[in-house]
Design brief:
- The structure is a single chain.
- The chain is an alpha/beta fold.
- The chain has one domain (41-418): Spore Coat Polysaccharide Biosynthesis Protein SpsA, Chain A (Alpha-Beta Complex), CATH 3.90.550.
- It contains 14 helices and 20 strands.
- The chain has an eight-stranded mixed β-sheet with strand order 2-20-12-15-11-3-6-7, with helices on both faces.
- The longest helix is centred in the last third of the chain and has 19 residues, at 400-418.
């Protein structure tokens, strides 16, 4: 069967007749490109995900309990020294790599461009988010007498702009030979009526498949093989938008080694029961993060005997893995979550439709859904003022204004300590 017939059979089977009609109106090259894309898409998976959007998320059958953690501020001097020594050895021996997830655009900030290229107004002259991360890595390199391999995950949408930006700024002084840029995978967008969206380029519209796609993208891009070749034993994965992110925290690393776990994470205490962050727990004997939108109000408000939130350890995208853990996860299929979004599209007559309300679903897997493949995770509780200053919203909480304040206060405290 030729490729066009094969594509049409699939489209018929999954009731995507609007795409069949569109195919006849395209020139030869446009047809070829669309057919090639159709034959790569897993329609069965997409339709299953679409059908799941009609189901409620329930935790009734599950046994949920709080997760144990260690508080960094309350470690004994001996514990701290032991952890720091174990962590330092790994980094000094060149067995540590860092991955930055930088696939997002600055849309919520009202900024057009890759999020990592956003300039935060600190100390008058300002610093780019990428520059802030590089400062942190350079400091670690100097401290541990090494150069940490850095892997940056972009999206198909922002890859070229990101590469051009870093080249233009000469990687802010980071050794380019230690930087690898790779792109994350995508999933088709689907309308509320179950029809796939077509974009202006007459292809099926796709969007990045969430930060959970990091693991399989590391494998597919060859970065995982590259890490193994370099003798990497531990991999840190964090986002581009937390200006207080410590990517080489030897205490966290040493704690993971001492507890003999394959995964570890840093948390901060949830500011209040309603804060829009995922929280750590144990579900059916496995570590899990429940996303804020999926956390029942009753659970969010529960407190323990000390008056602390029972589920108060926030996931702040500060995760650590053994290389074996990444390999294991990269071969697993993660669950997908649906997000109801507004997306413009081209109808079967070639007209662009711009919706005023959310009209379609985007499917994303979350990085923390991989925690369930393991029996244990080591959690180190940090401090919000030391570890968590995200730049997500244009105004209000987690905005450039709040991040600037936290960043400047943190560095003023560091300077005062040294004096």
């Amino acid at each position: 069967m030729d490729k066009k017939k094969e594509a049409i059979e699939v489209l018929k089977e999954y009731e995507q007749n609007h795409i069949i009609k569109l195919l006849d109106k395209l020139d030869e090259q446009q047809q070829e490109e669309l057919i090639e894309q159709i034959n790569k898409i897993d329609f069965h998976q997409i339709m299953e995900l679409y059908n799941n959007t009609k189901k409620e998320i329930e935790f009734k059958e599950s046994k949920i309990e709080p997760l144990k953690y260690l508080d960094k501020a309350k470690l004994s001097e001996n514990q701290r020294k032991k952890f720091d020594k174990l962590g330092t050895e790994v980094i000094k021996n060149g067995q540590y790599a860092v991955v930055t997830m930088a696939g997002g655009q600055g849309t919520r900030l009202g900024y057009s461009g890759p999020k990592g290229t956003f300039k935060l107004d600190v100390y008058g002259k300002g610093k780019y988010l990428f520059e802030i991360l590089i400062d942190d890595l350079k400091e670690a390199n100097q401290k541990y007498n090494t150069t940490i391999p850095w892997y940056i995950m972009t999206s198909i949408e922002n890859n070229k702009e990101t590469v051009d930006f870093l080249e233009k700024h000469e990687y802010f002084g980071y050794d380019k030979n230690y930087v690898t840029i790779f792109t994350q995978s995508e999933m088709p967008l689907i309308r509320e009526d179950g029809k796939l969206l077509i974009g202006k380029d007459y292809k099926i519209k796709e969007a990045s498949d969430g930060n959970g796609g990091t693991y399989s993208s590391l494998r597919a891009s060859g970065c995982l093989a590259d890490m193994k070749e370099k003798g990497i034993k531990w991999v840190f994965i964090g986002g581009v938008d937390n200006v207080l992110l410590k990517m080489a925290d030897v205490t966290l690393l040493g704690m993971a080694i001492a507890q003999d776990v394959q995964i570890a994470s840093k948390s901060v205490v949830k500011a209040n029961p309603q804060e829009r962050v995922g929280v750590f727990c144990k579900m059916n004997g496995h570590p899990k993060v429940i996303e804020y939108a999926e956390l029942p109000t009753k659970m969010a408000e529960q407190r323990d005997r000390n008056g602390e939130l029972k589920y108060g350890e926030s996931h702040i995208m500060c995760n650590l893995y053994t290389i074996d853990a990444i390999e294991k996860i990269s071969n697993e299929i993660l669950m997908y979550h649906s997000a109801h979004k507004k997306n413009s599209y081209i109808d079967e007559n070639g007209n662009e439709i711009i919706p005023e309300e959310p009209n379609s679903y985007k499917f994303e897997s979350f990085i923390f859904d991989a925690f369930e493949f393991f029996d244990n995770i080591a959690i180190l509780r940090g401090k919000r003022e030391d570890d968590f200053a995200p730049v997500k919203n244009k105004e209000g909480v987690d905005s450039p204004k709040t991040a600037k304040e936290l960043y400047e206060k943190f560095w003023n405290r560091q300077e005062n300590k040294q004096e």
